[in-house]
Amino acid sequence: MALSGCSLGQVGSAFGGFGWPERGISDKSHRMYDLWIGSVLAALVVGILVWGLIFWCVIRYRKRGEELPLQTRYNLPIEFLYTIAPFLIIAVLFYYTATTQSYVDKISKNPDVKVEVVAFKWNWQFRYLDNNAKGPDGQAVSTIGTSDYVPVLVVPTHKSVLFYEHSEDVIHSFWVPDLLFKRDVFPGNVENKFQVTVDKEGAYVGRCAELCGAYHAMMNFEVRAVTPDKYERYIQARTQGMSTPDALKSIGEEPFATTTHPFPQNQNQRAAS
Fold it and tell me: What is the pLDDT of residue 174?
């Protein structure tokens, strides 16, 4: 009865990654996925060994009478084994965790694209900081969300994208589930940054993952990953004065966000519901 609502596809997707989402859309999400799979497999091996020893002791040394069985004390080989083995397991897991963390936090000296992420109650602004992304007024091209518009952040695939994060009020969190990664956005002079390379085209929902106030659930955005050629054409259209929807439409993309349904985007509508 408990499994009657599950399909084989749902069960397969759940156990395929041991509860972890699919491999993600970036180089770093793949690395984190591999760490998760390796850690779970190691835990399963240890668990099976422990369960096996428990059931073996229950069966082999079950009570067979009133006579007290032979008592064994000071078994140095066994004590040495259960002291050293956990240390070795922890050391291996620590090594792979530390190297994966260093890889995820690694930032190259010359990223291909630079984007500033500005969070505020309760929306997002994305500013393109590269020299070729300046509008007719000489200012950086930007996209800003409003109460009835979900901002779309356009990035090229197979190019390194460096994000600079800043908050204008409270702590927010930049979260794209398909990146298998999120990074807090702090107010004040604290600047958080990270770098990713998206390797799969598509539209990916983004959200704020830090409870930041009444309309926290409204802080949706979309990452639109396009080919490098489309990205260059998009930036060129923006520098010529086109809006984000018009520039997206000019390169053959949907002009508005497509991944935030069924969350209402209008704050008044959200409050009324």
Answer: 94
β-pairing, 142-144 vs 123-128, is: antiparallel
Tokens read off for 124: 């997002």
Residue 188: per-residue pLDDT: 83
pTM of the shown model: 0.79
- Cα 245–chain centre separation: 26
DSSP 168: S
- Cα gap 181→101, rounded to integer Å: 11
Q: Which CA distances in Å does 53 have to 60, 72, 76?
A: 10, 17, 18
Fold classification of 113-267 is Immunoglobulin-like (2.60.40)
DSSP secondary structure letter of residue 124: E
- For residues 139 and 125, the model is more confident at 125
Rounded Cα gap, residues 239 and 141, in angstroms: 7
Spatial separation of the C-alpha atoms in residues 180 and 30, rounded to whole Å: 9
Amino acid letter for position 223: V
Tell me the mean pLDDT in the region 96-103.
93
| Stretch 49-70: mean pLDDT | 85
| Opening angle at CA 214, ends 209 and 215, nearest 5 | 60
Secondary structure (3-state) at 172: strand
CATH 2.60.40.420 range(s) for the chain read: 113-267
Please say if the pLDDT value at position 5 is more than 70: no
